[in-house]
Amino acid sequence: MEYEVYGDLLFLVNFSMDFLAFYLCSRLLHRPLSPVRGILAATLGALYAIAALFSPLRGLPALAVDLAVCLLLCCIAMLRRGEHPLQLLRLGGAYLLISALLGGVMTLLSSQLNRTLSPDALPRESDGMGVFSLLASLAAAVVWLLCRVVRRTRATQTVTLQITENDNVLTLPALCDSGNLLRDPISARPVIPIDAHNARRIIPEAVLQSAAAEHLTDAVAALPPELARRVRLVPAKSALGAHSTLLLAWLPEHLSLQSGKSHREISAYLAPLPLNTAARGFCAIIPSELLS
Predict the structure, then answer these.
(1) Distance from C-alpha of 274 to C-alpha of 196, rounded to nearest angstrom
(2) 8 A C-beta contact, residue 114 and residue 121
(3) Domain end among 87, 120, 151
(4) How many whole angstroms separate alpha carbon 119 and alpha carbon 195?
(5) Residues 103 and 203 in one domain
(6) Spatial contact of 250 and 203, defined as CB atoms under 8 Å apart
(7) How far apart are CA 252 and CA 164, in angstroms?
(8) pLDDT in tens, 47-106
């Protein structure tokens, strides 16, 4: 049996679905998605889908190549500099899950459309891209809502943060916040906002004075070298993205998180801030990615 395949339509369909999957994956995992990297990965994925039509591979070898390409695309689109390569497994799993959800929802909507409409009312072949766009939009909305439910569930998690500095140990209750995307642009380490009052018990006074200075960059430049090497200036934006500023972040000697019975060592910066969560019993805000 022979099939007639339109390469341009196949490319557009795969490009759209790949980019949509990368976008939803970045929202689910709370990771910023660069449009350039997302477009590049989606383009390569669409080209691979066309090339796969002419591949002689079948069965397990074809599946192995598909999985390898999936990990490569996730690396291009979402892997950050300095991250452990094993993060690719998490990214690839999320990407495959969202792709499967998108495909499943689109198939369900298409089947329901065929059952509801009479044969005369079904879209003509020339309207294929319009119908695809409608189904893709509806499927994306459904998957996005599912991502929101997962994010809200994870956002309520509370943990215990333990900070060690010069044999001084500070233990604080912390809130896991999916909206905390702060990250040091140089080392790519995440940044944990910590209540300024509690920060005085662990962060050197000279560093705290620099954090409160009007001219932050000048104050950091005046720090002693042994302190300055553990300080970073981290760009931050408000929730609406309308206001940007610089935060001073401090790298402690040792950090660990405890959630239930699990205990893990982490590497992150601390940013002393006047947190309004302190009134609710939480003294730090943990990026959700540190719990993954």
Answers:
(1) 5
(2) no
(3) 151
(4) 64
(5) no
(6) yes
(7) 7
(8) 888 888 787 878 888 888 888 888 898 888 888 776 777 778 888 888 888 888 777 766
Residue 264 pLDDT exceeds 90: no
The span from the CA of 136 to the CA of 75, in Å, is 24
Domain that holds residue 71: 7-151
Q: Tokens in use for 201?
A: 């018990």
Tell me the torsion sign for CA atoms 51, 57, 59, 62. Answer: negative
Give the pLDDT confidence of 151-210 residue by residue, as tens digits: 555 555 678 899 998 888 899 988 887 778 888 988 889 999 999 888 888 899 999 998
> 0.85 cut: is pTM over it?
no
Q: How many CA atoms lie within 13 A of 284 on its CB side?
A: 26
Give how many domains the chain has, as a whole number: 2
Distance CA 292, CA 152 (A): 15
